[in-house]
Phosphoglycerate mutase-like protein (Rhizophagus irregularis), 217 residues
Amino acid sequence: MLETIYFTRHGHRSDWIVPVLNNCYPTGLFYDPQLSPHGCNQAKELAQYFVNNTIQLDKIYSSPLFRTVQTANYVAENLDLEILVENGLGEWEIPEPASTSKLREFFPRINTLYTSVSNHPKADETIQDVHDRLNKTMQEIISRCEAEGQIKSILLVGHAASVTAGVRAVLEDRLAVVNCGTCSLSKFVREGGKWKLRLNGDCSFLSGGEENNWAFD
């Protein structure tokens, strides 16, 4: 039975330091930056959090954007896990991302046989659409994990909008305040058949603390 769900946002983006020049990002897409050096350090600290606390994840799901897969990869490397690219965790208001096969050129831990819960979201999604998407995504991911029977703990790596809406989906509260700094960690634990939020955007393990928090409003 699934017992624990973790959410994290990708690390600090390279284009927050230097704007894109001539589609120089790894996937060749101008809207798909990699992590900055600081973001890589954040992702390493996130990965170390799981090691230091002896937390064994069973699955890691990631949005199909380079920066999220890159963040997930640090955790996957430390825990020797594969990465499941999930379109339902994708960014809000962007065009089509790179293909899973393209991403796997950079991240061999990606399981290309995984079937995503949903197609890539439309670029004209409303805030309600994002919440609807994450409701569907979380319901299906939880259902699939339950069906497998042996899955106890999962990590979902997304963006500010998808992480916020995902946490709200599990809480069943679309107005909940969700802390969502880069590489922050939110944690749900199942207690008495209900999901209880035990960490809300925790950044205590990050040397820089909370950074780049974001909200819909």
